[in-house]
Amino acid sequence: MKNIEWCDITINPVVGCPRGCPYCYAKKINDRFHFVEDFSKPKAFLERLEQINKIKNKKIFMNSMSDIAYWDDYTIDTVVFYMKANPSNEYYFLTKKVNALENVSRRPYPNTNFKTFNNFNVFVGITITTKEDYMNYVRSVGGVRFKIINIEPILEYIDLFKYALPCSARKIILGAETGNRKEKVIPQKEWIENIIKFCKEYNIELFLKENIKKYL
Ligand code: SF4
């Protein structure tokens, strides 16, 4: 698996996602390499977690091929077990579901609660691609806050200034759509510049992915 630019290593204990986003890069990879037969049904590969025991002081992205909102309870508990046993690493997760962490916090497992997912070196990011996604996130902020906002792929102008400030965010990741689908969205310069300005103003770390730099 190709590493994500902002992490050192990617481990995917789950492959598959039922959300069905039309631009899904993970599905495209799966169509090519056939890790799972049906990408819409997440499948756990928990043996992959063993490698965490050999990794020290790295940033590990845990779900480039799935969305944690659709992981089952046993998988989440097992992942938490490995993370706790190896605290020198930082663990990164992304979800498109604004209430993903609330769901995690309600699970009846003692090892898995919102504190676990928001305390020791664990960073969960919300992925947004449109204004509507951003509004949904802003509306949910009273409940659960995310440390990362992943705007990828950006599909339209999203004026972060216009709505409430996602003040919990320590990092914003900005990327463009990849691949060659017919409806592929090409980001405009001002979309990117607005987000750069926002990050400067609110002192939020910005990670511009290679795939978006050419549109600046
Ligand atoms: S949420 Fe992520 S993994 Fe799931 S279909 Fe959408 S882009 Fe793919």
Description:
The chain has 216 residues and is an alpha/beta fold. It has a single domain, classed as Aldolase class I (TIM Barrel). The protein is built from seven helices and nine strands, in the order E-E-H-E-E-H-E-H-H-E-H-E-E-H-E-H. The strands form two sheets. A seven-stranded parallel β-sheet has the order 1-4-5-6-7-8-9. The chain has a two-stranded antiparallel sheet with strand order 2-3. The protein starts with 8 loop residues before the first strand and ends with a helix.
Percent range of helical residues: 25-40%
Radius of gyration from the alpha-carbon trace, in angstroms? 17 Å
Mean pLDDT across all amino acids: 86
- What is the highest CATH level, the class? Alpha Beta
Q: How are the strands ordered across the major sheet? A: 1-4-5-6-7-8-9
* 3D shape: globular
Q: What is the tally of beta strands?
A: 9
Bound molecules: iron/sulfur cluster
How big a fraction of the residues is strand? 15-25%
Looking at CATH, the homologous superfamily is Aldolase class I
Quaternary status: single chain
Helices and strands, in order, run as EEHEEHEHHEHEEHEH
The largest pleated sheet is described as:
7 strands, parallel
CATH architecture: Alpha-Beta Barrel
Helix tally equals: 7
Based on secondary structure, the structural category is alpha/beta
Report the uncertain regions: 105-114
State the end-to-end CA separation: 28 Å
Number of domains: 1
- CATH fold topology: TIM Barrel
